[in-house]
């Protein structure tokens, strides 16, 4: 369920960007009706829209609106490359949205791997399920990659536009007027306080939007397996094991990601050897057929 949630998050994110792009007219009207004037931050720079968060959603939105001529100010709390294991497998529909948004090159130079479907394993039996891609161009497929590399490339793409300003800072409050958010107050990485105003100020944390009120039923532990081959090349692999699923998929030309779902909110300790023992005694015997 956690793996499915990660996939749903990234797909809903791209649906959100595309939907916003399709609603350009409504955004135009909203901006024009917002006192019909240019909004400026305390630095004197004029802005049409402020985006809080430069993850996948925020970066794609910044690029899309910036390409349409909007002056965009993105405030992201940490512009270093993220080190996370979620959102590493983009489905074909997500890749098609990248193409429509002009962002497909964000997966072309990060050693991303094409994914054509899944292999399922249970009780010693297996089957392969391929994506129905027969009617699409040969380049259309899923993509798997290092999440952090993808996010950094998306940020670079957005920041390459002259009217998109990417700034590292932590938003401390939203500035409202007559029930409408008009801007944000934030601190820069040096601790300086600033205010920024714009007719539109969306919050682009898909993780917060989707999972804020969801109880955590389990935790994923991620391993990177180097120079290892999967039984079915360019496919994700799902092992329906006990007590919960185990996932494998390529994240580069030399690395395979293994995600072990561990039930409960307490993860076995790495420092005292509990994690290593769990992986060796519970997980390894159920995936021995992957060792090539």
Properties at a glance:
five-stranded mixed β-sheet; flavin adenine dinucleotide binding; alpha+beta; single chain; 2 domains; disordered N terminus
Largest sheet: 6 strands, mixed
Described by its quaternary structure, the protein is: single chain
% residues in beta strands: 25-35%
CATH class of the largest domain: Alpha Beta
Helix content: 25-40%
- Reading the helices and strands in chain order gives HHEEEHEEHEEEEHEEEHEEEEH
What is the CATH topology assignment of the largest domain? FAD/NAD(P)-binding domain
CATH architecture of the largest domain: 3-Layer(bba) Sandwich
Number of DSSP-assigned strands: 16
Shape: globular
What is the radius of gyration computed over CA atoms, rounded to a whole number of angstroms? Answer: 21 Å
Output the structural class: alpha+beta
CATH superfamily of the largest domain: FAD/NAD(P)-binding domain
User: Whole-number average pLDDT?
Assistant: 83
List the domain count as a whole number. 2
